[in-house]
């Protein structure tokens, strides 16, 4: 991926700290995210990725430091921040009783869209869910639910979207569907901050990657620059073995096969 950092950052974080009792989770986080880029925040479970996202989306307050999202301070202008963003958590927040189309229309009404039906239909088409739009969300596969969840997040045209471990628990095919959706978002100018513990996910998607460890950002650069932190690769001639992912898709067929 190329580094697209230009102009005023869509997200700017400086010295953010957060503790829960005696447990210091964030110890001074600094980062910037360029407009229209995909920024991946890597880290192990419990390292503070979700805590940082919750601060940036105004769900909780930092103990110290400053953060601005879409040019608005998260502490003093939370309402303006919420107008500019959307947040998709670790689990798809869809109503299983409603159909896919009804889920989208419900959110469109809450966002005061003039024509909720048209908004729903456009998003169903964009995320290849038109044929499933009349079915209850309870019948959707994991990948379809996640695509629907992301589609719901886009209602109101937020300029910035937070995706907190969006592919957790998904099978390989569903993960690829979500990856395609994320790439499309950035392609249309949406800024994406993605948290993940999957290294291949960050490698496939991100323009820029930051590693959060022990409460601080210990690396923040493009993939190509991060690779330079290691010694030059030693050239060896070995027989290439297929990866498990290649074997999986060879067995099941097309990567984007139809889901049940």
CATH class descriptor of the domain at 11-75 and 160-252: Alpha Beta
Return residue spans where pLDDT drops below 50 for at least 5 consecutive residues: 1-6
Structural class: alpha/beta
CATH superfamily of the domain at 11-75 and 160-252: P-loop containing nucleotide triphosphate hydrolases
Total number of helices: 9
How far is it from the N-terminal to the C-terminal residue, by CA?
32 Å
Based on the coordinates given, report the CATH architecture of the domain at 11-75 and 160-252.
3-Layer(aba) Sandwich
The name CATH uses for the topology of the domain at 11-75 and 160-252 is Rossmann fold
Strands of the biggest beta sheet: in what spatial order?
Answer: 6-7-8-3-9-10
- The ordered string of helix (H) and strand (E) elements is EEEHEEHEHHHEHEHEEHH
Q: Which percent band covers the strand fraction?
A: 15-25%
Amount of helix: 25-40%
Count the E strands. 10
What's the alpha carbon Rg, rounded to whole Å? 19 Å
Question: Can you describe what's shown?
Answer:
There is one protein chain. It is built from nine helices and ten strands. The chain has a domain at 11-75 and 160-252: P-loop containing nucleotide triphosphate hydrolases (Rossmann fold, 3-Layer(aba) Sandwich). Strand 7, helix 6 (172-187) and strand 8 (191-196) form a beta-alpha-beta unit. With 260 residues, the chain is of the alpha/beta class. The protein is globular, with a radius of gyration of 19 Å.
């Amino acid at each position: 991926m190329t580094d697209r950092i230009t102009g005023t950052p869509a997200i700017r974080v400086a010295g953010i700290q957060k503790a829960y009792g005696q447990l210091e989770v964030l110890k001074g986080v600094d980062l910037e995210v360029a407009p229209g880029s995909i920024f991946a925040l890597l880290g192990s479970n419990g390292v503070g990725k979700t805590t940082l996202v919750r601060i940036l989306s105004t769900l909780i307050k930092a103990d110290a430091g400053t953060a601005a999202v879409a040019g608005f301070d998260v502490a003093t202008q939370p309402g303006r921040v919420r107008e500019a963003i959307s947040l998709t958590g670790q689990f798809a927040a869809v109503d299983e009783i409603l159909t896919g189309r009804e889920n989208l229309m419900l959110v469109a009404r809450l966002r005061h869209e003039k024509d909720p039906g048209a908004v729903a239909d456009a998003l169903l088409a964009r995320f290849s869910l038109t044929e499933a739009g009349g079915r209850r969300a309870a019948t959707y596969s994991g990948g379809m639910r996640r695509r629907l969840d992301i589609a719901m997040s886009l209602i109101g045209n937020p300029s910035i979207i937070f995706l907190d471990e969006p592919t957790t628990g998904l099978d390989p095919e569903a993960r690829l569907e979500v990856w395609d959706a994320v790439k499309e978002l950035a392609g249309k100018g949406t800024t994406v901050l993605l948290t993940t513990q999957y290294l291949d996910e960050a490698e496939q998607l991100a323009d820029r990657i930051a590693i959060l460890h022990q409460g601080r950002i210990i690396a923040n650069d493009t993939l190509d620059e991060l690779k330079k932190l290691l010694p030059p690769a030693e050239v060896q001639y070995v027989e290439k073995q297929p990866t498990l992912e290649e074997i999986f898709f060879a067995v099941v067929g097309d990567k984007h096969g139809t889901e049940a």
